[in-house]
Amino acid sequence: xxxxxxxxxxxxxxxxxxxxxxxxxxxxxxxxxxxxxxxxxxxxxxxxxxxxxxxxxxxxxxxxxxxxxxxxxxxxxxxxxxxxxxxxxxxxxxxxxxxxxxxxxxxxxxxxxxxxxxxxxxxxxxxxxxxxxxxxxxxxxxxxxxxxxxxxxxxxxxxxxxxxxxxxxxxxxxxxxxxxxxxxxxxxxxxxxxxxxxxxxxxxxxxxxxxxxxxxxxxxxxxxxxxxxxxxxxxxxxxxxxxxxxxxxxxxxxxxxxxxxxxxxxxxxxxxxxxxxxxxxxxxxxxxxxxxxxxxxxxxxxxxxxxxxxxxxxxxxxxxxxxxx
Length: 325
Fold this sequence. Notes:
The chain is globular. By secondary structure, it is α/β, with parallel strands linked by helices. It has two domains: 7-216, Spore Coat Polysaccharide Biosynthesis Protein SpsA, Chain A (Alpha-Beta Complex); 228-324, no CATH class. Strands 1, 2, 3, 4, 5, 6, 7, 8 and 9 form a nine-stranded mixed sheet that branches. The protein has helices at 20-28, 48-56, 74-84, 103-113, 138-141, 146-154, 158-164, 180-183, 191-200, 228-236, 241-260, 266-288, 296-305, 308-312, 316-324, and strands at residues 7-13, 36-41, 62-67, 89-93, 98-99, 117-127, 133-137, 174-176, 204-216. Helix 7 packs antiparallel against helix 9 and helix 7 runs parallel beside helix 12 (266-288).
């Protein structure tokens, strides 16, 4: 299918010979074929690279395989893969998932309609190691708020939402290559959360509620966290000072990139940097309250009744976490 818009797949591997053929086949079975698949292998010691090479010989699209001589880790591996993609749209792909046949087409048709659309993410069905459906999906597992899903079906409020709460995994993300000046390099932070936040600062974002990927759950990879008990446990998790420092450093880095890579996005840049400044102020308030002892109740009350926990955090859950810390 050709409409003057092409996509690359940035696929990162590391000792994935058990699952990589399923994922490559699901990409080959797409109703809208990729221009290329860029595979960055993070020094695998199994048969992953051999399987990729064999598979590439039977495909009409290009599969480029690059091997890291020493392991770089997932963030830097994706950074390299994204930087080497040559198409206007870049899909991220893990080695152990499976795409539904219409996934790429649904994304690409949306990118065609909205030239300002820079980020798309979709829901995923959770399957077991043998691809048997568990009856669960990732958005429910991560307690993605219904309002956020509704807002981002049709609106451009992505950055506001992702700044407050970012729970979308890399395997479901596709971005415009034009956002790479903001996205890259990827800091030592969850690569998928960073890519979602950074790219959404450049344009419109959209969520597709449909499950377009089978997210394979194996070993200790993932816990759905869908029970009420787990949700309560989340409120009891303490937040370290290093966490606040890391978040603030990340936001300062993003702010610098946005302001130094304007590219005629001045209005959106102003909105994004204003929100970033508010988030940094909010994180600093939460960080300093740890030294306030019992008086932190006053700060928590101020943030709660001022609406900042809901605007910049996860509402009552974040307030409870600060109270219990």
